[in-house]
Each structure stands twice: as C-alpha cells, then as structure tokens.
Amino acid sequence: MTDPRPKARKILAISRITMVVAALAMIVTTMLAYPLADRIGFGVQIAAHLLLPISAALFKIGYVVRLASHHTLGNFSAG
C-alpha cells in the first residue's frame, strides 16, 4: 500500500490556497454588492450578489478538504 501523506500535503496546500482566494473573493464581492453599489453598474451588482454565496461555498469546501488532509496526516487537533 502506498503512503497517502505526500498527496495529502499537496491537497492541504491546494485547500489553503482555495480558502485564501475564496476569502478575497468574498471581500471583493461584498464591497461591490453593498458599499460600492452606487458607483457600479446594475449588472455588476447582480454578479456580485450571485458570486458572494458561491465564494462562501468554495471557502467551506476548502476548509473541509483542509480538515480531511490534516486527518490523513495524523493531525487530529486541527480545527
């Protein structure tokens, strides 16, 4: 049986990157959807409102994958 740890480390790095990108996307879409809404077009506002829950879902998926990777690596106290 092969050791799953190298793959888990790679997936851990990808999940962290996913979380950072999703968090930045949430910040940008929130700014576009609410405080800057009067300065941008209606289409951009609609897109920002639609992308906000999508970016939140990607963040949550990244977090769950991060936890699974930690579990595979034997770190059961990661939270």
What is the structure about, briefly put?
The protein contains two helices and no strands. It is mainly alpha-helical and 79 residues long.
Q: Would you mind describing this structure in some detail?
A:
It is built from 2 helices and no strands. With 79 residues, it is an all-alpha fold. The chain has one domain. The longest helix has 31 residues.
List the helices and strands and how they pair.
Elements: H1 5-33, H2 42-72
Overall strand count: 0
What is the domain total for the residues? 1
Structural class: mainly alpha
- Chain-averaged pLDDT: 95
Descriptors:
76% helix; 0% strand; mainly alpha
